[in-house]
Model the fold of this input.
Amino acid sequence: MRAEKVLITGSGGQLGTALRKALINLYGREAVIATDLVPRTDEIGHIQLLDATNESKLGKMVGEHAITQIYHLAAILSANGETYPIQTWDINLKSWLNVLEVARKYLVKKVFFPSSIAVFGESANKVETAQTEYLDPLTVYGISKSAGEQWGNYYFSKYGVDVRSLRYPGVIGHESLPGGGTTDYAVEIYHRAIRNERFTCYLCEDTALPMIFMADAVRATLELMTAPKEKIRTRTSYNINGLSFSPKEIVASIRKWYPDFQVDYQPDFRQQIAENWPLSINDNQAQKDWKWSPHYQLDDISNEMITELLKKQKLPKKV
Ligand code: AKB
Done:
């Protein structure tokens, strides 16, 4: 059996930063090749340059390092995608097709595709949205993710590539700032709160969305990727639930630590995106197939976000 060698694209992003650390813990530093469009060295290690829209460069890297697993995290998110629709399609879909082709040609053992709740649109039931709901996404990002899911399923059925995927809710983490998503407010708000700054929220106070804490998102990814192959019965993408809350509810949670925290509401174009997404997610299939269950509720998230961000900023601990 080949030793595991993991390639991550989009390693410098919000999820990439946390997942890279977890993969290094699991497989060892030498086994993880982190790549991104912008090469750099950070506290975790070195990120090499790789443009995944270039199939031959991607193939060369996979061949040279005898890669056994690819985590394809490179993507433009929902809000930025609306500003750059054509580029978003190229980056999100072209790179994914390259990954699938390279995986097929080089016999890569497993491939991970991050999908999103953005695959759902107007027609889906908004409450406890099911795995099998109709997909009519409103955004280019959502279209690219729903098409990406189908391509993953196709490569699995046609060529036997072991493609696994999760539909992430908004991910909340302290490792790095997200960029260009509709759920980003739920991370930025903590950065404001710990500096005692006022926050302007671009969603209405009652707009609830599905969210997940980074530790849960990373654990879900690794649990899915290490589950026995026969347990994976969904090859498009699994719904996973964390929790659901509105801006008003996250503010109430933050005020348990910062009672004077002030927020203004100025909804912009992201409000319409959010209104088309589910309010909550049904993840029965993930629970059944590979025993998924989230650990973090809203006050646990606030506690960890505030504690970790204060540490990072070298600010005194909040009790
Ligand atoms: C976004 O807001 O675009 C992402 C997502 C829900 O996929 N965080």
User: Anything to note?
Assistant: Residues 85-105 form the longest helix (21 residues). The longest strand covers residues 110-116.
